[in-house]
Amino acid sequence: MAEQPQEQASPPIQKRVQDSFDRQGLMTHLGARLTHIGPGRVHIVLPARAEVTQQHGYVHAGATSAIADSAGGYAALTLFDEDSEVLTVEYKINLLAPAAGEHLEAIGTVLKPGRTLTVCQLEVYGVQGDGARMLVANGQQTLIRVARPAQ
Amino acid sequence: MAEQPQEQASPPIQKRVQDSFDRQGLMTHLGARLTHIGPGRVHIVLPARAEVTQQHGYVHAGATSAIADSAGGYAALTLFDEDSEVLTVEYKINLLAPAAGEHLEAIGTVLKPGRTLTVCQLEVYGVQGDGARMLVANGQQTLIRVARPAQ
Amino acid sequence: MAEQPQEQASPPIQKRVQDSFDRQGLMTHLGARLTHIGPGRVHIVLPARAEVTQQHGYVHAGATSAIADSAGGYAALTLFDEDSEVLTVEYKINLLAPAAGEHLEAIGTVLKPGRTLTVCQLEVYGVQGDGARMLVANGQQTLIRVARPAQ
Amino acid sequence: MAEQPQEQASPPIQKRVQDSFDRQGLMTHLGARLTHIGPGRVHIVLPARAEVTQQHGYVHAGATSAIADSAGGYAALTLFDEDSEVLTVEYKINLLAPAAGEHLEAIGTVLKPGRTLTVCQLEVYGVQGDGARMLVANGQQTLIRVARPAQ
């Protein structure tokens, strides 16, 4: 999936997503970074450091979910104009396998955009140093579009 | 809810839960701490620092979910013997209101224990400095009991 | 829970909910009926007939979910004026035990009302002929308020 | 999606799934029928009759969910031997659009099989008389494998 060429969002949209991401204290604190911003599709990578583990040394479900949630939210944001923000209404995620690997890659993909509500698919892969990938979590998320607060 | 006296788990169970929590790199990294370990019920508090925010300065849904998920997992763990571990199978969480406050308090409560699967209710409150509380997230979680790996 | 006296919604609201329920072909076809309409809380009873079973003779998860979904939707509807309708955005339900009994009782309760989105808790009990009750399903539902289509 | 040739499950597996389906009183009562039984993938069709509607004349979310849940359950069952049964642990479903059409087609697909737990993706399409298709619901389901009760 990461192999195929990925369509990029326009530079203004990429900038808007990146700027918002950079204001998320949690993403910086976890060490996560945006690696792809396409129309309706965003990737976030999280290196598997000790700071994001659960008690067995795998990445914590909370960290796995955090990057999945952000990837879905930004995937939705790419589809709206600059006066819009999106908020997570809810999500559901299955942890399919221990989140092992050198890093995790979360992929948020818009399944159904809408004027008010948008639904995204969430996938998280564990990626080994040699590039081997395994689906470790899969989810579904509902987001709501709101007017951007005046600065 | 926090006002009523809370039943405590036995000291060995409290120790087992605390030891496991202390091995969760993510909980330490986020600044979360266990504040109550009762039979089938665990509380986790997360101070609202800049390191756990989303782009608007509220606590990130990922951090909110992380403490909710851990609270549910440990609530289940209190019901099993020392040869058991629990893993999150899946959870669903609604973000009901901006996660504002001086700190968040996640409460995990076992709704239905089982030999294989256990279902927990997850609640997260935003707590102001004066003690005012507001439900900011509500969820439901499925866990599986597994044999503890030999040390 | 069914023992405590239940607050009733106002007669016009009760009529509005009952009229809408009566237009749901599925509820009639399943044999379900409204048994309580309170403010933010609705009960629906489903007799356990062969027509609603799965392959082992218990009530089918689909029938269990159908009455839970309707109970939540009508619980939300009691809180809005007559120009509003509610639609289910999504729900998640855990099937906790085989849905056995003489009938099922679904209880939908508004957890967080909102101008646009409302979140409900869903519970379904299996009720024996002697009144013994067991929680057989528990869920969480998101609804959206929309303007009622002109008649 | 329905256009591509579909791999069929072996005749004994097809028979086992069909026999179980035929014992589901609810599926018969709703008028649903199995239309494809492949390895890890099952389709169920539900004609849009008045008996399965909600108050606006669309198919009720409960009926939509019922066929989605059964499709996922049987998709999982195709992967196990005859001594196994599967039970739904939980599912989450988003209703993406009014469930309109001449009939609905639910597709259950195994996303992650497992010895104890299996996770399926659930999709429901509204299909018009001319074959036009629209995704009306999307979900995710967790199932547990259990030993088949002795007959």
TrEMBL record, chains A, B, C, D:
InterPro entries: ACOT13, HotDog_dom_sf, PAAI_dom, Thioestr_dom. Keywords: Hydrolase. GO terms for molecular function: fatty acyl-CoA hydrolase activity. Pfam families: 4HBT. Residues 56-126 form the Thioesterase domain. Belongs to the thioesterase PaaI family. PANTHER family: ACYL-COENZYME A THIOESTERASE 13 (PTHR21660:SF1), THIOESTERASE SUPERFAMILY MEMBER-RELATED (PTHR21660). This is DUF4442 domain-containing protein.
